[in-house]
Amino acid sequence: MPDSFRFIRDSKPSFLQISTVLICFLMNMLDGTNVMIISYTAPVIAKEFTINPQLMGIVFSAGLLGMAIGAMFLAPFADRIGRYALVLISVMLMGITIFLTAYSQTALHLILFRILSGLGIGAMLASTATLASEYAPPSLKSFWVSFVMGGYPIGAVVSGLIVARILPTYGWRLVFEWAGIITLVTIPLIIFYLGESLDFLIKAQPRNALNRINKILTKMQSPLLAELPILSLKDKEKNTVGSLLIPELKWPTLKLWLGIFMSFATLYFLTSWIPKLASNTGMSESLAIYAGTLFNLGAFTGIITQGFLSSRFGLRQTITWFLILTAFLMILFGFFSNPFIILLLISFIGFGIQGGFVGLYSFAAELYPTKIRATGVGWAIGLGRVGAIIGPIIGGTLISQGMHMSSTFFVFSIPLLVGAVATGFNSITEKK
């Protein structure tokens, strides 16, 4: 980045930087809402459509399949058309398909709409993580990315509180209509207050790049550029997924993929099945929904804490210990039966797994250079979603076979330990 952009590193964050980060946070709140409402409404939908646990696991995984495809094949377009454009496309796709989910008449309809909405969610997660990392001052990068991704569990918390009140009286269809409308009405915020990445405009130099850069710099009350910097031959090279596996990135990339795969598998088992598993312990339907809410409330606290600790002790060490301690808590789960203690443990587990898991987004954003950053983050998320697809399906199979809640938690503590080892032995390569 040109020396004239030192103000991003040396000055206080501008209004545009703050508004961009807050909008990215809001977009991830919508992601959390649109992912979790299927879990909150699952018992009612399953009853209406007569869906067994295995088929409901497929419904859960359909959304995750869409997210994997979106992260792997839509998110890389952010390295071509820009982060701003892809965020706008993603929110439109999410809003329309979530709203249409309310008019599903069969399980097949649910699966189709979950895949389509997942495309937008997957692309959105990668785009916002990338954009936040590129607008953050270097000393705050880990914290800003963690804060932005913290919108996901907050969206899940807010939606859980609302669903607990709406669902018993108005039914599940109104829940999806509400979520779709709320998503679509955020479009004007994106149009007027979301900034494009200066990193992207400098390194990709799309049409009218200089004018777009100077408009952003004007908003930030910063010196303008007289001309664009000359790109090197390396900068002009066409980027592909293979760029993630060049010699200096190959092993860090493979370890990142393994860590995020294992974390995704456990996380999405928990987010998909906690309300159902909690209800199996004898909790009321409303209290079971609050179990999911406490999980995500703990998650937001964990994400912010992880961001703070990472800025002081390093990403790799912080992520590793978060995952190890969460695995230990999941193993302990089987030793308690009191509902209050169960809810407390669920909250602490959310704290640990989401804190460690979101740290991997920051890790990916720091691992890759600007020109392949969205591709790298997207593929890490996308391949991780494969684990997310497998997790709920395995969970549904174990539950349908009568496995106790504590036993399923023990089983899913193992992937977390594997993810911790993969992360602990990884390293970030210095990039240009």
Please tell me about this protein's structure.
With 432 residues, the protein is mainly alpha-helical. It has a single domain (7-424), classed as Up-down Bundle (Growth Hormone, Chain: A). It is built from 19 helices and no strands. α2 packs antiparallel against α8 (172-184). The termini are close together. 54% of the residues are buried.
Largest sheet: none
Question: What order do the helices and strands follow?
Answer: HHHHHHHHHHHHHHHHHHH
* Model regions low in confidence, pLDDT < 50 over at least 5 residues: none
Total number of distinct structural domains: 1
The portion of residues forming beta strands comes to under 5%
CATH superfamily: MFS general substrate transporter like domains
User: Which structural category fits the helices and strands?
Assistant: mainly alpha
According to CATH, what is the topology? Growth Hormone, Chain: A
Number of helices: 19
Helix content class: over 70%
Give me the count of strands: 0
Shape, per Cα inertia axes: globular
* pLDDT averaged over residues: 85
CATH architecture: Up-down Bundle
The CATH class label is: Mainly Alpha
